[in-house]
Amino acid sequence: MRVILFGATGMVGHGVLRECLRDDGVERVLAVGRSPTGRTHPKLRELVRKDLFDFGAAGADLQGYDACFFCLGVSSTGMSEADYTRLTFDLTVGWAQALARINPAMTFVYVSGAGTGGKAMWAQVKGRTEDARFTSRQ
To answer: Cα separation of 96 and 68, whole Å?
Structure first.
């Protein structure tokens, strides 16, 4: 299995990266993020991008993968709903759609959190993101 991982430098993504590198069933991991992971491993390749909203720039680098773990996330503290939506919903759905076009059979795993869909703004945005249909036709 070949895996793309977004958010490998964060708390959850770091753990996902560790487990992917340890798993004999995982042949390759491509970590995509704004900064390098600081790790070296024969299975690990990194794609550092300043603008994570540029969904089309790295198409060839993203071909041939079976799964994606999307572990990017930010705290909603002090953020407007529009800004939080952009960084949570728009970024996730944008990458899910781009990856579906490049790797139509890919499994996309959006790593979310407990309490989503509740009354708080962040919970509503996360709930909408969880409910989004991640297809190339959206």
So the answer is: 9
